[in-house]
Each structure stands twice: as C-alpha cells, then as structure tokens.
Amino acid sequence: MSKLIPVVMAGGTGSRLWPMSRESFPKQFLSIDDSGVSLLQQTLQRLSGLTGIEVAAPLVICNEEHRFLVAEQLRGIGQLATNIILEPVARNTAPAVALAAHLAAEKDEGSMLLVLAADHLITKVENFHAAIQTAMSFADNNQLVTFGIIPEHPETGYGYIKRGSHLSNDCFKVDSFVEKPRLEKAIEYLASGDYSWNSGMFMFKTAKFLQELQQFSPDIFSTTQQSVSKSQRDMNFIRVEQDI
C-alpha cells in the first residue's frame, strides 16, 4: 500500500471566527476546546493510530506571515522537518495542492496524498479513521476521492457535493459540485438527501492527481512544476519561486 503524505492547508484567515480569530493569528492556530492543542496540531495528531497505513511527515502549506507560527506548532508535536511550503501568493486549493504534489513526487512518486484543512474540529476520530481506510481502497485504485459531510442544516456558507450512483457502503460517484447556494437552494438540498457539504478533504495518488491536473489544467500543472523546480530550502521552509 502507498505511503500516505498529509497535505495540510493552513493559509486561511479564519474570518468566520472573528474576533477570536484574527488575521495575524487565525483560528487554525487557536485551541477552541479545553485541550490546549491548536486545530492545526489536532489535524495532524488525528492521524496517529491509523491501522495498516504508513503516514509520512506532513506537508503544511501556509503564507509567509504565519511561517513561524506553523513551525512552532509543528515543533510542539514533534512533526517539524523541512516540510512547510510557503505559498508566494494566496490562491485557491488547486495550485496549493499542485505545489505539494510536485514536491511529494520528488520524494516518492508512488505516494498517496491526503489533503486536509487545518481548521476542522473532528471529535469522532474513529469515524474519521474509518473514512480514511475506505477512501484509501478507492484511491489505491486510481480514483480521486473527496470527503463529504452529511449536512445538519441548510448552510449557505459551504459548497455542496451532489451524489451520483452508489458504489459501496457510504461511497458514491460525484454527480456535481455546487458553489455556496442561496438559502432556498440549501433548503432543497437538505430535504433531498442527495447532497453533502464539501469538506475540502481529498485523497488520491500523487501521480494520478498530477496526471489529471496536466490533462485538465495544464497551466496550473506547468506553472507549479516550474515553481517547485526553482524552490529553495530555508531552515524548515520550502520557498517556491514567486515570479512564475
């Protein structure tokens, strides 16, 4: 089975949790329960105890301003290496994951990526582990896996995933992705039972993701490939080329 490399997206500003979360200290670096452990640290600690899966050192993507916060928090849980990717410009998910995928491919082209948000609070860790185990069986078969969350109310602040045909257990093909809907649509989605919230978590083979990216978004593929080829290691940080 492929080695699993966690890719943690830690570049958000945490605006939804203002004023507790601030631009200089967004929510992924806060502890919002009684544990004293930040959401970023919890994101990585949740991966311990996965049965039969070799979890490699994570790649954490953040902006320049928060680099020392990330380094300090990774050091605090014993997961600091040269593994913090400094995003030169805040962009959407695809370029950030592409940077991580190119870097992962340099180390282990046969690896698997698990893309995670740094600001999720997940209390049912055993269910999370079970979902990862299930996802890995599909990803190992060259499927691109996205994790959905069963909606609890008509939320207009999240994207949605419409389920397609049933595959097995709680796994479905994706029919379509829907951007943040108006309230009327969100109510319809909830009532239909055919939609999940888009968690922003994904799993796929590194090589498969890059293959699909090259086919469907060749500009992002080539730009991020060039950025990584000119990247520099600076202490615990990976600085990718900014001018491409």
User: What is the count of structural domains?
Assistant: 1
Tell me the Rg in angstroms: 18 Å
Per CATH, the architecture is Alpha-Beta Complex
Q: What share of the residues does DSSP label as strand, in percent?
A: 15-25%
**Mean pLDDT over the residues:** 92
* CATH class designation: Alpha Beta
Shape: globular
For the biggest sheet, the summary is: 10 strands, mixed
Determine the CATH superfamily. Spore Coat Polysaccharide Biosynthesis Protein SpsA, Chain A
Query: Low-confidence spans: pLDDT under 50, at least 5 residues?
Result: none
Break the fold down into its secondary structure elements and pairings.
Blueprint: E1 4-9, H1 39-45, E2 59-63, H2 67-76, E3 84-87, H3 93-107, E4 112-117, H4 125-139, E5 145-149, E6 160-168, E7 171-178, H5 183-192, E8 195-205, H6 206-216, H7 218-229, E9 232-234, E10 237-239
Parallel strand pairs: 1-2, 1-4, 2-3, 3-10
Antiparallel strand pairs: 4-8, 5-8, 6-7, 6-8, 9-10
Question: How would you characterize the overall build of this protein?
Answer:
This protein is an alpha/beta fold and 244 residues long. It has one domain (4-147, 198-239): Spore Coat Polysaccharide Biosynthesis Protein SpsA, Chain A, CATH 3.90.550. 33% of the residues lie in helices and 25% in strands. Strands 1, 2, 3, 4, 5, 6, 7, 8, 9 and 10 form a ten-stranded mixed β-sheet that branches. It comes from Serratia marcescens. This is Nucleotidyl transferase domain-containing protein. GO terms for molecular function: mannose-1-phosphate guanylyltransferase (GTP) activity.
